[in-house]
Every structure is written in C-alpha cells, then in structure tokens.
UniProtKB/TrEMBL annotation:
Any one GO molecular-function label of the UniProt entry: glycosyltransferase activity
Functional pathway: Purine metabolism; IMP biosynthesis via salvage pathway; IMP from hypoxanthine: step 1/1
Membership in a protein family: Belongs to the purine/pyrimidine phosphoribosyltransferase family.
Subcellular location: Cytoplasm
Cofactor(s) this protein cannot do without: Mg(2+)
Enzyme type, top EC level: transferase
Originating species: Luteolibacter algae
Reactions catalysed: IMP + diphosphate = hypoxanthine + 5-phospho-alpha-D-ribose 1-diphosphate; GMP + diphosphate = guanine + 5-phospho-alpha-D-ribose 1-diphosphate
The encoding gene: hpt
Domain Phosphoribosyltransferase: 13-160
InterPro entries xrefs: HGPRT, Hxn_phspho_trans, PRTase-like, PRTase_dom
Keywords: Cytoplasm, Glycosyltransferase, Magnesium, Metal-binding, Nucleotide-binding, Purine salvage, Transferase
EC number(s) reported in the record: 2.4.2.8
Full protein name: Hypoxanthine phosphoribosyltransferase
Top-level division of the source organism's lineage: Bacteria
Length: 178
C-alpha cells in the first residue's frame, strides 16, 4: 500500500497538532446546548474519530452516506443521499464533518438539506480544502490543511475503496491509479 504513494503531503505529526488546535477552536466557538455531529461517510471517519475525542463536551453523533464521486477520481456533479432515514436535527446546532472540500457540491448540498430539516445552525469542518474555484459557493468554518488541486488518499480518503487506513495524506503514484 505504502509503495503506491508518490509523496506524503500531510504527515501524522502535523495532523495531530492541527487537530488539537481545531478541537480547541470548536470547543470555544460552539454555544452551550445540544450539538449534533454529522459525519459524512466514509471519507470523514478517520478525521472524525480523531477530532471528536479531543472535544470534551456532550455530543450526539450521526452519520450520513452521500455520494458524488462513485469510486472514481472526478466529481459526478450531483450529490445523492443514500440513507433511508435522515437524522433528526430540528433545533440543533450541527457540526458537519467531511474529509475534503473540492468542488463544494457535497458540503453545499448537505448543509442546505440540514437547514431544510430544521437545524438551527450548521458549521462545517474539513480535514483538507483544495485551493481552487468551487462549483458551489461554500467554504468550511474549520479547515485542517489547504492543499493544491490534486487527488489525494489516506487518513480516510480512498482511491476505489483503498488507502483509507493510511495514517497520513499522500498523493498516489500514477502507476497505482489504474
Ligand atoms: P466535492 O463535493 O467538494 O467536490 O467533493 C467532496 C467529496 O469528493 C469528498 O467528500 C471526497 O469524498 C471526494 N474527493 C474530492 N477530492 C478528493 C481527493 O483528492 N481524494 C479523494 N480520495 N476523494 C476526494
Ligand atoms: Mg466524501
Ligand atoms: Mg471517495
């Protein structure tokens, strides 16, 4: 698996330090009262597990399955909600977690839906944000790292279902992207 990585972009140590900072910011910024965390599967799983254990307050945790990439390396352009049931968020302050902000379609669509479902406020945190023009006008409130516009894997992010368990974020070798 590691043989297929061209370059490490964000290593474990950097991720740990950055998560400490973001967790503190979230802890101070969020008002008292119920907070529901929504984890976008599967990419945000690793980020969420490490981030949420650094936030010492009562949180409810829900997951959402959305798809925009369908396993490839390019966005398909629309966002599908794959769950039968949408979490109950009415009147709640929501912290929405995703692995990476790319075109912005996923965050924009999920944020819109959460507000339609009655969430009081939706704040978003992403591990990575690609420096590019977005298809949707959306920015995350908390960003782990800004990266260039290239396809990355690891720390939750996959290529065709693989590499999510790499402990760092890296760029795939061209020879591995088959
Ligand atoms: P957006 O809707 O912002 O275009 O894309 C968000 C989703 O696309 C992310 O949740 C992630 O699943 C996928 N994605 C975008 N860029 C990358 C990337 O560089 N690597 C991987 N593995 N997934 C990506
Ligand atoms: Mg995703
Ligand atoms: Mg994916």
């Amino acid at each position: 698996m590691q043989n297929n990585i061209e370059r490490v972009l964000v290593d474990e140590e950097l991720i740990r330090k950055r998560l400490d900072t973001i967790a503190k910011e979230i802890e101070t910024d969020f008002p008292q009262g119920p907070v529901i965390v929504i984890i976008l599967l599967k990419g945000a799983l690793v980020f969420a597990a490490d981030l949420l254990r650094r936030i010492p307050r009562e949180l409810s945790i829900e997951c959402l399955n959305v798809a925009s990439y369908h396993g490839g390396v390019e966005s398909s352009g629309n966002v599908d909600f794959l769950d039968l049931h949408f979490p109950e968020v009415e009147g709640a302050h929501v912290l929405l977690l995703d692995d990476i902000l790319d075109t912005g379609r996923t965050l924009a669509a999920v944020k819109k839906r959460l507000l339609e479902e009655g969430a009081t406020a939706v704040h978003t945190a992403v591990l990575l944000s690609k420096d590019k023009t977005r298809a949707e006008e959306v920015e995350a409130d908390y960003i782990g790292f800004e990266i260039g516009d290239e396809f990355v894997v690891g720390y939750g992010l996959d290529y065709k279902g693989k590499y999510r368990n790499l402990p760092y974020v890296g760029v795939l070798k061209l020879s591995a992207a088959v």
